[in-house]
Write a structure and sequence with these properties.
- With about 230 residues, the protein is an alpha+beta fold.
- The chain has 4 helices and 15 strands.
- Strands 3, 6, 7, 8, 9, 10, 11, 12, 13, 14 and 15 form an 11-stranded antiparallel sheet that branches.
């Protein structure tokens, strides 16, 4: 009797082992099949950034929106692209040379004033989110138009001081604030590099508050400035 029970228990134990082994085998096969499914690859190429190339010019050259490039590369809003950085261009199939001919040079951006950036896009400044960048300068320094456009605002603006806003007629606007004096008038057409204001002083610091607005929404100026 004891021998029979022993044989019965041994047979039951072997059955359980076979059943469990079969389950493990099935699970493993399922995992392998999942792993072997190829993930779809993104269509596009990598562009190696050269000196003075801007995200705006790269987007223009490849005919891709800046927003698409920012999303594809997870570029932080407070960042700027650097020389030798690899930037993925979604949808592109061939690398292109960033060339600036005479006509294109007219729409390229320049810095409105030379100086150190003391506050970056979307950083906290005086308890508020900075909607542009602040460029330290000397009080009275001349502020330049970064690109040709029409003056759509030239007056005192609460919170911004004496301010100039240029419409570049392609959905982009440039904003120059915290000035001591304005040198242009409403509706005036100004060329790139034209003197439009003089840097003022605020909170014991002389600086220009500069913004780029795309369709009335603030954008990172460092994506446009060389």
């Amino acid at each position: 009797m004891f021998q029979r029970l022993k044989i019965l228990y041994f047979g039951l134990f072997c059955f359980v082992l076979v059943f469990v082994a079969g389950c493990v085998s099935i699970k493993t096969q399922e995992e392998v099949s999942v792993r072997t499914i190829a993930k779809p690859e993104r269509k596009g190429i990598y562009h190696k950034v050269k000196q003075k190339e801007t995200l705006w010019r790269i987007a223009k050259t490849y005919n891709v929106s800046i927003d698409d490039i920012i999303r594809a590369n997870n570029i932080p809003q407070a960042a700027r692209i650097e020389k030798n950085q690899l930037v993925f261009i979604p949808g592109a199939d061939t690398a292109r040379e960033i060339l600036v001919d005479v006509d294109a040079a007219q729409v390229e951006f320049i810095w409105p004033v030379h100086g150190k950036v003391t506050s970056y896009f979307h950083q906290q400044r005086e308890g508020r989110i900075n909607k542009g960048i602040d460029i330290q300068a000397q009080e009275g320094d001349l502020v330049k138009a970064v690109r040709e456009g029409r003056v759509v605002f030239a007056d005192y603006l609460t919170g911004y001081g004496y301010t100039v806003i240029l419409d570049h007629l392609d959905g982009l606007y440039s904003v120059y604030a915290k000035n001591a004096k304005l040198l242009v008038k409403l509706d005036e057409w100004v060329m790139k590099n034209r003197d439009i204001a003089q840097v003022g002083r605020s909170s014991n610091l002389a600086y220009l508050h500069f913004q780029i607005r795309k369709n009335s929404v603030e954008d990172n100026p460092l994506f446009y400035l060389p």
